Amino acid sequence: MDSQENEHTNEEEPPPPLSSPLPPDLATISSEIDQYISSQESLPPDAPTIIEKFLTLVEEMMEAYAHLKWTRLKEEDASCFLRTTNRVSSLVKMLAEFRSDYKYAYTINRAGSVLQRAMSYLEGEFKVMLEDHSKAPAPADLTSVCSAMLRGGYQDECCHVYFIVRRNALEEKIVQLGLEKVSIDDIHNKPWESLERDIEVWIMKFSSFAKEEFPPERNLLDSVFAGDSTIPEILFSALTCGITKHILKFAEAVALTRSSPDKLFKYLTIYEAVRDAVAGIGALLAQGVAPELKNEALMIRSHLGEAMISIITELENSIRNDHGKNPVPGGAVHPITTYIMNYLEFTAVYKNSLEQVYLEHQRLEATVAATSTVDAEGVVVSPFQAQILKIMDLLLSNLEAKSKFYKDTSLTTIFMMNNGRYMLKKIKKSGGLHSLLAETWYRKMSSDLHQYHKGYQRETWGKLLRFLNPEGLTGNNKHVKPLLKERFKNFNALFDDIRKTQTSWVISDEQLQSELRVSISNMVVPAYRSFLARYSQIFSSRRQTEKYIKHQPDDVETAIEGLFSGTPATSGKRKQ
């Protein structure tokens, strides 16, 4: 029971109501002071005496308020204090008109001293209330005290207090989020895998901080300094500049790390985070972002941009320097095609940002006057588009050179079809990549694939179909039969060789594989069926028929269906 009583005794209780600290004669004499203030040219002879009496009463009020917290004052007492303080401010301004008159010298000095004391009290209370309140709208007390300080000519002191309190609050928030200043050496010595995770966390926290803290901060400023458009602008610009520059030290350190292809996409996310956060700050300022912060952000974006352009340029060099002469088995998609296209696919996700990076870099370098170039078709393209087109052309040239390492011309065309189809599928899948390369490039690539297809048919199946040509097979059977034997013999040998060889070739794209098989079947099977129907009866004995006609049309069709499977062919059996 005793412990419960002690606990109850120790609990903080609401403060007891305060009796009014205002001198009883203050209201009466204040009306006389108001009359003096309203007079514009002269003061009555007794003015110094009345003013001295008023100042004495104000000093008494100050004594009474000296140890009181503003938030504990009754509303009418707080209002009266502010009215009195404003009255002293007006009195000081009015007396300044008579500073050349010696009889007012003492009164002027004393009024200034009283005003300074009142402002000192308000400054302290303003600081305490501001520390207790951090979100808009500001309590009426904050706005009223701020207004009184501004009216009293203490704008610098008021702004200084606001800036220090709010800067400390924002810096405390930064520490809580783990966004405090980092060492450049620590960043550069950290393994990239670890730094990648730090970057993800930093972007999330920085973006969240900029969105959640800065708009309310601007609203609080507008609320506290209600009616003034200049001060909130200046203070908000100064606050956001200092705080954001502090946070951006991390981005600056990362931007100066050694670049490599795997860093491109993290650089891009940092670039976007810096760009968007600074743009968000600028949207809250009538005059835009402070030049100091703008320059800092531009410098970081410039470093990141240079690193990103260097990485993409290195992608060009990796293609140029790929001189491998070992052909890919079966004419499959080359690893360099897979690597480059996957990389470009991810790059295209950041198409808009990379367009901006290249334009900014071009302006900074001032290498050309224009911000765009013209491609081979006469179409105007942006610097980033030109870069992607250049990489694609280099890749195609590299693949064409590699295709020549195949001894079989047909396999050369299969290799180009495989790689070309892979590229087209990636482009079609990626809307950003498709828009970068434009429809003209896509159509040209499709046309090239069609030509490879025709070239393959001509090189492989055109040779086979020559043996099914009826030319020279007219006349009596005695003359035709030896020719037919030779034709069937050559057909069988070449067909078996094609089946054996091309079954192990690879076409990984199912649609392309199906298209090729169908086109081959349509080209070969009807011609072979017709040839058999016309000439098979020339062989009179079953033994001769089986010797020279090894394949029935269905056998040929089945064999064609097994082409390009990437597995060795098995011996085919003649259907009876």
Automatic annotation (TrEMBL):
<feature type="region of interest" description="Disordered">
    <location>
        <begin position="1"/>
        <end position="25"/>
    </location>
</feature>
<dbReference type="GO" id="GO:0006887">
    <property type="term" value="P:exocytosis"/>
</dbReference>
<keyword id="KW-0653">Protein transport</keyword>
<dbReference type="InterPro" id="IPR016159">
    <property type="entry name" value="Cullin_repeat-like_dom_sf"/>
</dbReference>
<keyword id="KW-0268">Exocytosis</keyword>
<feature type="compositionally biased region" description="Basic and acidic residues">
    <location>
        <begin position="1"/>
        <end position="11"/>
    </location>
</feature>
<dbReference type="GO" id="GO:0015031">
    <property type="term" value="P:protein transport"/>
</dbReference>
<feature type="compositionally biased region" description="Pro residues">
    <location>
        <begin position="15"/>
        <end position="24"/>
    </location>
</feature>
<comment type="similarity">
    <text>Belongs to the EXO70 family.</text>
</comment>
<dbReference type="Pfam" id="PF03081">
    <property type="entry name" value="Exo70_C"/>
</dbReference>
<dbReference type="InterPro" id="IPR004140">
    <property type="entry name" value="Exo70"/>
</dbReference>
<feature type="domain" description="Exocyst complex subunit Exo70 C-terminal">
    <location>
        <begin position="202"/>
        <end position="561"/>
    </location>
</feature>
<keyword id="KW-0813">Transport</keyword>
<dbReference type="GO" id="GO:0005546">
    <property type="term" value="F:phosphatidylinositol-4,5-bisphosphate binding"/>
</dbReference>
<protein>
    <recommendedName>
        <fullName>Exocyst subunit Exo70 family protein</fullName>
    </recommendedName>
</protein>
<dbReference type="GO" id="GO:0000145">
    <property type="term" value="C:exocyst"/>
</dbReference>
<dbReference type="Pfam" id="PF20669">
    <property type="entry name" value="Exo70_N"/>
</dbReference>
<comment type="function">
    <text>Component of the exocyst complex.</text>
</comment>
<dbReference type="InterPro" id="IPR046364">
    <property type="entry name" value="Exo70_C"/>
</dbReference>
